[in-house]
Each structure stands twice: as C-alpha cells, then as structure tokens.
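Fill-in record for Thiamine-monophosphate kinase.
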Amino acid sequence: MHVGEIGEVELIWQIRSLVDKFQKKALVGIGDDTAVIKGKGNHLFLFTTDTLVEDIHFKWRFISAYQLGWKALAVNISDIAAMGGYPTFALVTLGLPPRTLLSTVEDIYRGMQDLSLKMDVEIVGGDIVRSPIFFITISLLGEVEDQRIILRSGAKPGDRIYITGDIGAAATGFICLNKKEISLKPESREFLEKRHLMPFPRLKEAREISRKKIATAMIDTSDGLSSDLYHILEESNVGAEIWEDKFPVASQTKEVLSRLNRSFSEVALAGGEDYELLFTAVPDKNVEEILNFQVTMIGKIIEEKGLWLVNKEGERKRIKPGGWDHFSKKI
C-alpha cells in the first residue's frame, strides 16, 4: 500500500502508533499543534516544525522570496500560538537547487527577520542542502506556563466554538492569484492576496486567551475550518455543530466569491491557510466581552460524534472534514 492510498491523516495515525510506545519524557507528542516537553520551574517547552516545498505549498510565480521567508516562519509561530505559548528560537533548513540566486536566499532571510523582530524570535542556526527543488523547513522552540497551556483534547459537550478574525480570505486570495482577470479594486486584491502570502500569526490574541483561561481546547486554522475542528473533536472524543450563518467573512472575500458564484461555506470549510485561532469555551463565559479583540461564536460541542453543519435554513447535515491533504491535493 502506498501513502497516497491512505492519505495524510491516516498516515499520521500510523506513525503515531509506532512512536507513542517510545515516548517517555515528552508530555505531549503527535496529535497536537506542537510537542510539549517539561521545562524548568513552571514552564513547558513547545517544539514544532513545518516545511514549505516548491510546487506543493507555493509557486514562485505567485510569491516573492521575502514573502516566502515571512510565511515559513509565520506558520510555525501560529502552531506555538495555538498552544497558548510564545516562540523563542528557530532553526532554518534550506534545500537549494544549485542555480538558486544568492539574492533569493538573502530575501528569504529578510522576510523571516522582519517577522521575527515583531514576534521576538531568534534565528539561531539550521542547515543547507543541495536539492532538485527548493524547500524550507523551520523548527521552532517556544515556551508556555504549565497552567496556561491549551491542548486540542479539552473540549466538552456544551462548550461553544469560537474563531478569531474572519475565514476564507486566504483561500480567496489564492483564487485571486490564479485568476488575474477578476476585476477588483487594487486595495481589495492586495488585502486578499496578502492574507494568503503573508499570514500574521495570532500570537498576541493567543496569549490573552491563555492568560484569561478562556479556552478549553484550541487549534490554528491551517488546513481548513472543518478539518482543523475535526482534530479537536477526535482528540476530545466529542462532536460538533457549526452554524453557517455565523461564519465571519470579510467583505472582500464575499465580493470575489459572489462574482465567481462560489459557495462561501465550501471555501470557509475547506480553504485553509487563514491561521486564525479556533477554540472552545464553556457556555457561561461571555467570551466576546472578556477578550479585547474580535471573536465570533460559530457553533457548539455536542456528545454525538461527528461534525454537523446547520445551514441558513436551519437544516442540519453531517459533513466530512475537508481541507489540505498532502497526498490528495495539489496547488
């Protein structure tokens, strides 16, 4: 059997079953946004890694080297944020075809450095290898106070489901990059394309959520709303109901999808790369008033297993998680 036949999710479960028995010192291994390791005092170490591969995760005709450096670091910081923590040190590995321009490497590091200054991350080393295609891998270390860590496994029936910001903009930005013929105001196109090319991690928001002990479970929306929510459901052993008419959407996203006659729900559920925070909270907390930034309640946790979408007409239907899978989708 090939990995392409079982898909990314099943492959991860297979790997998890192999390595779990050898996990002795780590507090959390495969199954969350980062690994969790006991630190000094009341602090825990968070450890994550992510790779962007040419023609799989990006195409050079759409993205600059500066933007790629920014995005490569951003997606790792977002994982740390989803645990309620903060990033500290990064290692960067570059796979470079021999004809890669030196200016390309320099611009990649400029992108990473500009974001690292905003997020207080130090780039402290890495590796360079020859490769037939370009790739960048970042391994990121972070920390979180042991009483403030947020896992995917804490959701309980009755909890409400919230998301920061808006959803679907990054996927719509990718559509705009592929369809230059779409007539848009320059500022609208810039907004959407930037959401795809240069996501801004919700680190400040995540730290506030963890400090105020709001979330019972949390994840960042990297693969798509339905897919990422499903990770929480699996780890928490619960189900969920989400409300289509409550999905937060930017006006620019609405404009493009309306012109293309595309379903916003489809893009929101499966588009991915918004890097918003998707979290659950107990129902008796007035989350919107407690937090100092925009969040939207979009559903609730239920005992019945599975994921259910309630449409604008109030009809309830079971849906499967949809989103990015390395062995079934390509850009």
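KEY FINDING: The chain has a mean pLDDT of 93.
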